[in-house]
């Protein structure tokens, strides 16, 4: 059993690709499970226990699915909560020269209560699926079989990053990273495959309370029943697999969000290899960096499982023969000068000036982004004061996988509405880099339709005021 930071427990049988169960709901206690196709079973995604109606996928929606993971995508609005399921589909009748695998994300809304008597009566009415690509751009070199997927999201945030472990027909493995926001965007806006009419009323398959007129509902149920796949394809951040400077085959991966001394959140990946090694990798908007590498097993066997215990600060690593435990903040291994330690770039560690040594960063420190609450259709501008003209300023969103340039500068580096800038809900951090050191200057948490003072002011008086107000707060 491994626990990922979204709080989803994934239980795996010894032959883990066959069965992936995702359990838990703190709020209503429902159990959701995904069963891979095996033997005579076609495979399905179900709600198997709980106070809500028990639902399943229609058999035609999934083609021999092999599940790789699942994650709850939280939302401040309970009825918008979703679960993503990650899997590969296998076309058993594909010709030998064709790739039989397709990597997929399927999603359901937890509010789903099923359809009507003759249409999706016991099935999801919010199931949709998308093709996931992992490979360089549109080239032929694609990794189509998804082996494992992990999601990093913070509490009540619909943003974050999904890491997928993929392999190709020759068994070569790579990791691709995806923005949860991109996935969310695709599911909410893409055309549906094989359906060219426009939608009347609500878009089919959206999470929401049932309340529209019955006629529309019936039509939408039909659309979802026959066209659950979206046309848009989910592509990785950076449009290519992570550029890991290693040729080792990766057999298992887990991920952790770390709040470092500079108050920035970092994604750290632990990659288990075929030779029983563990690579500790930092992933940020600057790319990937191998922080350290461990060989801790007596017998060289593939790493079969890993789990993080965030309370104890340990990583457990298992091969077929052995289990080992590593401290996440393994700060002693980087030598004893400040320079050596900082070069290690391990976000779990920091330099203790008083005791002149490199120590684990206590997890008590938290950033407190200023909350900005706005109606969903207003243009907003987020200001970041430029304090040093030798530094470069940039905006990052959520888990630092993407970054955005300033719209205009001078005394402020401003993030505003522009192409490719999804200025919607999320945490935006302004980062300044000088002499290779990166610090957070200011951060904002943007939420729509809240009841904060800033919200009412912003909606009545416009963005210029928001900018000015933020400037005031800075003093
Ligand atoms: C599987 O592959 C065969 C052969 O290419 C093709 O005819 C068939 O449509 C494919 N099935 C699906 C569901 O894609
Ligand atoms: C939506 O449902 C609630 C009860 O659940 C009802 O009071 C309300 O009138 C409905 N609104 C519409 C527009 O149907
Ligand atoms: C923005 O939303 C409000 C209500 O939410 C609506 O009255 C207004 O027309 C919208 N403005 C635009 C430009 O869509």
UniProtKB/TrEMBL annotation:
Keywords: Disulfide bond, Glycoprotein, Membrane, Transmembrane, Transmembrane helix. Its main location: membrane. One of its GO terms (biological process) is axon guidance. It is found in: Membrane. The chain crosses the membrane at residues 452-474. Residues 1-328 form the Sema domain. GO terms for cellular component: plasma membrane. SUPFAM superfamilies: Plexin repeat (SSF103575), Sema domain (SSF101912). GO terms for molecular function: chemorepellent activity; semaphorin receptor binding. Belongs to the semaphorin family. This is Si:ch211-113g11.6. It comes from Hippocampus comes.
């Amino acid at each position: 059993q491994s626990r990922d930071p979204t709080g989803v427990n994934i239980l795996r049988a010894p032959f883990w690709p066959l069965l992936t169960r995702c359990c838990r709901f703190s709020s209503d206690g429902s159990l959701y499970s995904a069963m891979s196709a095996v033997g005579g079973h076609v495979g399905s995604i179900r709600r198997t226990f709980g106070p809500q109606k028990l639902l399943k996928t229609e058999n035609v929606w999934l083609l021999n699915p092999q599940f790789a993971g699942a994650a709850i995508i939280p939302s401040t609005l309970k009825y918008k909560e979703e679960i993503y399921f990650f899997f590969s589909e296998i076309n058993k009748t594909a010709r030998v020269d064709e790739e039989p695998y397709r990597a997929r994300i399927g999603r359901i809304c937890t509010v789903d209560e099923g359809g009507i008597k003759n249409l999706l009566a016991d099935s999801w009415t919010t199931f949709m699926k998308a093709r996931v690509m992992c490979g360089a751009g549109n080239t032929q070199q694609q990794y189509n079989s998804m082996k494992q997927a992990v999601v990093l999201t913070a509490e009540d945030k619909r943003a974050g990053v999904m890491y997928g472990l993929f392999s190709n027909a020759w068994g070569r493995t790579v990791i691709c990273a995806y923005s949860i926001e991109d996935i969310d965007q695709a599911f909410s806006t893409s055309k549906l495959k094989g359906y060219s009419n426009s939608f009347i009323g609500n878009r089919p398959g959206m999470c929401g309370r049932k309340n529209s007129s019955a006629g529309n509902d019936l039509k939408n149920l039909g659309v979802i029943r026959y066209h659950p796949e979206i046309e848009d394809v989910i592509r990785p951040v950076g449009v290519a697999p992570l550029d890991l400077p290693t040729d080792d085959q990766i057999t298992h991966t887990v991920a952790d969000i770390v709040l470092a001394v500079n108050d920035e959140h970092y994604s750290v990946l632990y990659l288990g290899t075929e030779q029983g090694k563990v690579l500790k990798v930092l992933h940020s908007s600057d790319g990937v960096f191998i922080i350290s590498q461990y060989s801790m097993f007596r017998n060289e066997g593939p790493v079969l499982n890993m789990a993080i215990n965030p309370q104890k600060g340990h990583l457990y690593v298992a091969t077929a023969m052995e289990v080992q435990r590593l401290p996440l903040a393994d700060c002693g291994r980087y030598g004893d000068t400040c320079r050596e330690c900082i070069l290690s770039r391990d976000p779990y560690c920091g330099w203790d000036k008083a005791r002149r040594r490199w120590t684990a960063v206590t997890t008590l420190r938290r950033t407190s982004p200023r909350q900005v609450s706005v109606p969903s259709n207003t243009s907003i501008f987020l200001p970041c004061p430029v304090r040093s003209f030798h530094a470069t300023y940039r905006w990052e969103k959520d888990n630092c996988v993407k970054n955005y340039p300033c719209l205009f500068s001078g005394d402020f580096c401003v993030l505003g509405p522009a192409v490719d800038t999804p200025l919607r809900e999320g945490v935006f951090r302004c980062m300044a880099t000088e002499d290779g050191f990166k610090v957070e200057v200011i951060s904002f948490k943007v939420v729509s339709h809240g009841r904060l003072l800033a919200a009412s002011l912003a909606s009545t008086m416009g963005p210029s005021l928001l900018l000015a107000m933020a400037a005031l707060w800075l003093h």
